[in-house]
Write a structure and sequence with these properties.
Length: 104
């Protein structure tokens, strides 16, 4: 397990926005949904598409490549063509900074 990595300042992750950070080789997308932060691996389990930048509706992010949807709260795959959940990571705010880490 690695240490926490800094994502950005809280002022750079406002509601409706996302940021991507790397913990080693792991791309982690952090989303601000109505003031709550959710961190997931930025790789679609269907065919490796980047989820960051995909359309968001409620707590769901849609993969821009083929339209799979995932619940950002749980990582659960919600529709085809993805069936395997995406990894979900811890996220915290400390000293006005956003932090996450690959805790697998
Ligand atoms: S790569 Fe995401 S739906 Fe195909």
């Amino acid at each position: 397990m690695t240490d926490w990595i800094r994502v950005c300042a809280t002022s750079d992750l406002l509601p409706g926005e996302f940021q991507v950070a790397f913990d080693g080789d792991t791309a982690i997308a952090v989303f601000n949904i109505d003031g709550s932060l959710y961190a997931v691996e930025d790789i679609c389990t269907h065919d490796g598409g980047e989820l960051a930048g995909g359309p968001i509706e409620g707590f769901e992010v849609e993969c821009p490549r083929h339209g799979a949807k995932f619940d950002l709260r749980t990582g659960e795959a919600l529709c085809a063509p993805a069936y395997v959940p995406i990894a979900k990571f811890p996220v915290k705010i400390e000293n006005d900074q956003v932090w996450t880490r690959d805790d697998r």
